[in-house]
Amino acid sequence: MKFTISLVALGVLFLQYASGKRIDAVATMKSSNGVSGEFNFSARTAGHPPVNLQMEISGIKEDEYYTYHIHEKAVPRNGSCKDTGDHLDPLAVNKKDGKYSCKPSRLLKTCELGDLAGIYGNATRNSKSKDTYKKSVVLNYLIMDNGSLSEADAKFNVLGRSIVIHDKSNNRIACGNITIQDSS
Predict the structure, then answer these.
(1) Cis omega (within 30 of 0) on the bond before 50?
(2) So where are the chain's domains?
(3) With contact defined as beta carbons under 8 Å apart, do 102 and 116 qualify?
(4) How far is CA 123 from the centre of its chain?
(5) How far apart are CA 18 and CA 131, in angstroms?
(6) Domain named Superoxide dismutase copper/zinc binding: which ranges (predicted)?
(7) How big is the CA angle at 147 (ends 143 and 151), to the nearest 5 degrees?
(8) Chosen CATH of 21-180 out of 3.40.50.300, 3.30.450.20, 2.40.30.40, 2.60.40.200
(9) What is the pLDDT of residues 110-143, one digit of tens each?
């Protein structure tokens, strides 16, 4: 009897998870100095982790590196990357005391979840792709959902936020909003 109830409960949980819709989003950006980027997000089930991310940053100059982050706010109509807020930090690990240091081996305790470069590495040139940086990663703790989320879950949602690319002097040089991509 207990085994049957457990199987039924497991089946209900599976159906709830499997019934969610796949969701895709994209952020594209271009700077005046030739750096551009495209960040493609996908989640098999809306509202549930993980989110897969494929990123490509082009126009990288020799001996340069760029950092890239998910920022709290969308890019406003005026296009100002400066108005996108701080990095997405739903776990509030950055105490804003000047001591922030992301250690990917201790991700949940030391990294802003939006600090993609801190977690996965800076964007740099490589010999094969010349001026382009490409990387695919899995964002295990973030979600995408355009429905109604609890306040707690909404902090982990990437939709309605932005991607910002910074130069090595930390200037915000390119930004774009993370928006749902039409699946039709």
Answers:
(1) yes
(2) 21-180
(3) no
(4) 15
(5) 40
(6) 35-176
(7) 65
(8) 2.60.40.200
(9) 999 999 999 999 999 866 667 899 999 999 999 9
Nearest to 140 by CA among 49, 18, 48: 49
Rounded Cα distance between 86 and 83, Å, is 9
Gap between the Cα atoms of 62 and 82, Å rounded: 26
* Predicted TM-score of the model (pTM): 0.85
Each residue's pLDDT tens digit, 38-63: 999 999 999 999 999 999 999 998 88
As given in the structure block, the two tokens for residue 180 are: 């749902």
Residue whose tokens read 């499997």: 18
- What are 140's two structure tokens? 């295990």
Please give the span between the terminal C-alpha atoms of the chain, in angstroms, as a whole number.
45
Q: Judge whether 153 and 48 are in contact, CB under 8 Å.
A: no
